[in-house]
Amino acid sequence: MTLALCAALAPVSQAQAADPLSFQFTADKAGYTRSEQAVLTIQVKNTSALPLVINFSNGQQYDFAARDASGATVWTWSTGKSFDPSGSQRVLAAGETWTLQETWAFVTDGGQGVLDGSYTVSGTFLGNYVGKTGSKSGEQAVTLTTPDALQVTFTTDKSSYGRLDTATLTLTVTNTAPYALTVDFNSAQLYDFSATSSSGTTVWSWSNGKTFDPTPQEIVLAPGESRQYQTTWGLTQNNGLAAPSGTYTVRGTFLGIYYGQQGTKDGAAQIQIRPLL
Predict the structure, then answer these.
(1) In this predicted model, what pLDDT tens digit does every residue of 222-274 receive, in sequence order?
(2) Is 72:120 a contact under the CB 8 Å cutoff?
(3) What residue ranges define each of the domains in the chain, with the CATH number in brackets?
(4) 3-class DSSP assignment, residue 131
(5) Burial of 53 by CB count in 10 Å (0-12 exposed, 13-18 middle, 19+ buried)?
């Protein structure tokens, strides 16, 4: 065979070796807020001029998955599903596109909501065709954020108290989200109250002298649900002595942690303790 003939045949050989099935994986967005679902889509297209026979080793034709920032797989679409063990087949006409789509609700395989952060979602097509074996896959980075769904308010029954009065302090937490909010605590202590003098010294705290079960606790707030925590302050200091007359900042602090948002939430008000006449 002459060199000229070899050169003429080379493009034909390359065309025969070209992959006739194009693959694309996409998520519908790059950023999501909690309660949204990621729409995951695989599209495969027969780019050849002939029908393409695609074979599958069983009834599963594709899969989707999500990994967290550490690389650990937190969710796989096929987890818990059963598939016909028999082989299956799909024929794509010339130029035909096949779309495969599922959603991920940002939960783990165990059904728990994942924390806010970055994730990598992926789609895998499991078909074999024209002698080609092995899956086709793609991935995309997405992020999950939670608008702050926990509203905390703090109130006192009065703004000015006489020496013999008792102040009633109320802390209210409300889930403003359209979904249930799971709140975790490091111990059985869910909240605290305190009073600080005008000089910035904390003279009293509700938790002073109390002990709490160190076992982590959890509460679930339904959409729109509120919980109220209340105590009274007898206008005394932690040392048992009466708090001097003057201006104080009283505060209620909620100690819950939710969807990875660390740190306490609180509310405060200023009150006056009047001197004895």
Answers:
(1) 999 999 999 999 999 999 999 999 999 999 999 998 876 667 899 999 999 99
(2) no
(3) 20-145 (2.60.40.2360), 150-273 (2.60.40.2360)
(4) coil
(5) middle
Write the DSSP assignment of 202-264 as a string of letters.
Answer: EEEETTTT-----S-EEEEEPTT-EEEEEEEE-SB-TTSSBPPSEEEEEEEEE--BBTTB-S-
The closest alpha carbon to 126, from 46, 48, 64, belongs to 64
**Residues 54 and 128 sit within 8 Å (Cβ to Cβ):** yes
pLDDT tens-digit series, residues 119-169: 999 999 999 998 687 899 999 999 999 888 899 999 999 999 998 999 999
Q: Tokens for 83?
A: 């598939």
Q: How far apart are CA 181 and CA 184, in angstroms?
A: 10
Quick one: tokens of 249?
């900042």
Cα separation, 53 vs 192, whole angstroms:
67
The tokens 């602090």 sit on which residue? 253
Please state the pTM of the whole predicted model: 0.66
Place of tokens 């509700």: 206
Contacts for 67 with CB less than 8 Å, ≥ 6 apart:
73, 74, 119, 120, 122
Hey, what are 267's tokens? 């509310």
